[in-house]
Amino acid sequence: MTLPEHIDLSSGWPNPALLPANLLRTSATEALSNPSVKDTALHYGADEGYDSLRTHIAEWLSTFYQPCAPVTAPRVCITGGASQNLACVLQVFTDPIYTRNVWMVAPTYFLAARILDDAGFAGRLRGIPEDDEGIDLEFLEKGLQAAEATAQQDGNTHPVGHDPRVDVTVKLKPARPWRKIYKHVIYAVPTFANPSGKIMSLRRREGLVRIARRYDALILTDDVYDFLQWSPTPGGPFPDRACVPRIVDVDRYLDGGPVDEWGHAISNGSFSKLIGPGVRTGWAEASDKLVYGLSQTGSSRSGGAPSHLTAAIIDQLFPTGITAHLQNQLIPSYASQYHTLVSAIHEYLVPLGVTVYPPGAVSGGYFIWLKLPEGLHASQVAEQAQEAKVRVASGVAFQVPDDPSDTPAVFGDHIRLCFAWESSRHLTEGVRRLARVLERMKNGTVTRTQ
Ligand SMILES: Cc1ncc(COP(=O)(O)O)c(C=O)c1O
Fold it and tell me: Which positions are tagged coiled coil (predicted)?
């Protein structure tokens, strides 16, 4: 077998060979052949989404996350995937004037930034650093305090980055019974983060919920990689329970449970990484009240939740098909690709001074985040790698745009590698090519930063 001319370790996409076309073909035939399914699925649907899938997802999440009480269908609504749903959450629960800032764990999933920009938050995104345990709570709380202090000043309040002519005590959006406007939004990918791959510890998750309650913040988490987990040791077992409760689970039990019927957390789930991005179907989980409010987004009120037919097709995979696909196909393949990439990194990159973060008790997700040897800049590495026919993602792409902090984190000393897209053989060759680039850059035979 010949090697491909270009090897892509940059794109966060699933390997096409792992997309379950046959499974979906059978499910689609089943859904479209059964009159009781097809007549519903081809029509306008409920605002909350395809009912049977909501019930199935609720049962599936209960088994996987083992929350303090089972997830029930009213806590779940069907979405068009994590990105689409982030936009809907912002439409219903934030106000471009009253909501002060969006706090993003940095490095961050950069494509969320455009969605926040569309919702009116340009210039008001703030990066929160993370360490090995996840989000820096002290930094976040100081930032929230400063934003609130500014908001108290001079009566004509304006948080950092906000137009000073605007009075943020006024809400642009009128009050509605299904809507609560939060003062702040906190965005995180707490498990197998994109790009850092880190898992936020339970105590940080609990601390974050307490802060969100104190400062009237809604925590939105993209929990899109949680199901993709395996042992950090090659050949080890594949756990079938989540390694840590989601933040939405923490909000259910912490200090006696949610402080009001809305709660302060919403979990964004997606079938993009579990079935295929083309299905553009996901789910959101939060309190009954928040989920009902989300289902009242104008675009869902007009004809029902997105991805209705696809939701009915995906529903045919429950309860057993989805688990079989994950446990027998996807997870073993990704685990093997992950271990191949890690071993190639240790063999070819670590001797050159690259740092790979030690795995925790469980590994997973799509990405490995690497620190470059001293003096090399990620953008130049990505550029040189492209010339050597291997693509890697520069850490700079994951900075929070226009972060008004004094010293915004830039991540020019990091790169992200994805192990999901390429097959194992190509992953190893890609790392070899990257090693040659780093070696040349270190030796000064190509340009490097001072
Ligand atoms: C953290 C994160 N959120 C959201 C998405 C996109 O999800 P969806 O395809 O469901 O919109 C991705 C995809 O890379 C992601 O990494």
Answer: none
